[in-house]
Design goal:
Largest sheet: 8 strands, parallel, barrel
Structural class: alpha/beta
Bound molecules: ligand G3I
Distance between the termini: 34 Å
Low-confidence stretches: none
Radius of gyration: 20 Å
Mean pLDDT: 96
Strand order of the largest sheet: 1-2-3-4-5-6-8-9
Number of strands: 9
Shape: globular
């Protein structure tokens, strides 16, 4: 079997988020991917639990695995409003300058450590709340001010000028947020802030977002003249507002709908291959996904390309066999003529 990344080598790298604890279990499955994102091992709370303590053991092992298996590594994530250690914002009055120093230390130590192995970073993650048209109210913004984002990009660039620096966001297809992302990035570019790309997380479902909204989003983002990466792709079997939890396995209809959605989504990705520089799945197989228990505690989900037994699903073939389906369509077309 040809691996997925080989099928897509003329388009973009195919990546996967993986935790160190799953590396062995997914060893064979990971051969389909030529990029990895440590799912949690590079987050602030994991690598920098105390002000003068850094823990890189877990992330080092994942980076070493990637190096030995010729895979790219995406760094996720330097500045986020959650998964931060208590010391970062607490303690005696934390001033703007103190928090800037803490941010700079974290970014310079972490990015420098991997300057020869992590080619791109989600410098900031989820800085825009849904539907509000402004920067999210976070401790970063409250203590430093709105320029905390610019500072993060500058610290990362000063540490590793070669690294590609991304703003990573979810629900980018929503008009209000997309308007804000585009406007905000134009402001950053005007200020010569070193930003290289937009990370579109891509946490979708079999019914949302409408694929024309996705296409329109790429059309608009492509005008920014930045790289675009899909950074956390998964296709939930349930609409966000569907809190049903009676299914112990996906129905045939769900499996077919998911395969159709993945197929149409990837045809849009291939259409935008000139600006898309990576597509990363947020997980390898349905046996472990963050969507189990979210948003419904105790509910199983099946959002990925491989099933709970690590076997390829209909969704996998829907994106792997795109050339065959194109040939079939052409043959049907000629048959009708
Ligand atoms: O490492 C601790 C462990 O020591 C402890 O025993 C255990 C129980 O409390 O928690 C473990 O940490 C958990 C961590 O995953 C590692 O498993 C955290 O509680 C848990 O909150 C964390 O969840 C991650 C979540 O981000 C929050 O960081 C998910 O695995 C991860 O898939 C999810 O990924 C995020 C992206 O980073 C950003 N975009 C959204 C996406 C989904 O939420």
């Amino acid at each position: 079997m040809e691996y997925l990344y080989q099928i897509y080598k003329e388009f973009f790298p195919i990546g996967v988020a993986v935790g160190l604890e799953h590396l062995e279990k997914y060893w064979d499955l990971l051969k389909h991917f030529n990029s990895i994102t440590p799912e949690n091992e590079l987050k602030f709370c994991e690598v920098h639990p105390e002000e003068s303590t850094y823990h890189f053991e877990k992330s080092d092992k994942l980076v070493q695995y990637a190096k030995e298996n010729n895979k790219l590594v995406r760094g996720h994530t330097l500045v986020w409003h959650t998964q931060n250690p208590d010391w970062l914002f607490e303690g005696k009055m934390v001033s703007r300058d103190m928090l800037l120093k803490r941010m700079e230390d974290h970014i310079s130590v972490t990015v420098d450590r991997y300057k020869d192995s992590i080619y791109c970073w989600d410098v900031v993650n989820e800085i825009f709340p849904d539907g509000e048209g402004k920067l999210r109210d976070t401790r970063w913004k409250e203590i430093i001010g709105e320029d905390y984002v610019e500072k993060a990009f500058c610290y990362a660039h000063e540490t590793n000028p070669k690294a590609k620096l991304f703003l990573n966001e979810y629900n980018c297809e929503e008009d209000i947020k997309l308007d804000l992302i585009i406007d905000y990035i134009c402001q950053l570019k005007k200020k010569k802030i070193p930003i290289d790309g937009v990370g579109v997380q891509g946490h979708y479902s079999i019914v949302y977002p409408d694929l024309e909204k996705v296409r329109k989003m790429f059309y608009r983002l492509a005008k920014l003249d930045l790289q675009i990466q899909i950074t956390e792709l998964d296709i939930s079997m349930f609409a966000f507002e569907d809190h049903s939890c009676d299914k112990k396995a996906p129905s045939r209809e769900m499996i077919d709908a998911q395969a159709r959605y993945y197929s149409k989504l990837f045809s849009i990705f291939r259409e935008y291959k000139d600006v898309i520089t990576g597509v990363t799945f947020w997980g390898a197989a349905d046996d472990f996904t963050w969507l189990d228990d979210f948003p419904v505690i105790g509910r199983k989900n099946w959002p990925l390309l491989f099933d709970e037994k690590l076997q390829p699903k209909k969704a996998f073939y829907a994106i792997a066999d795109f050339r065959e389906s194109q040939i079939r369509k052409m043959e049907e077309l000629y048959k009708e003529e």
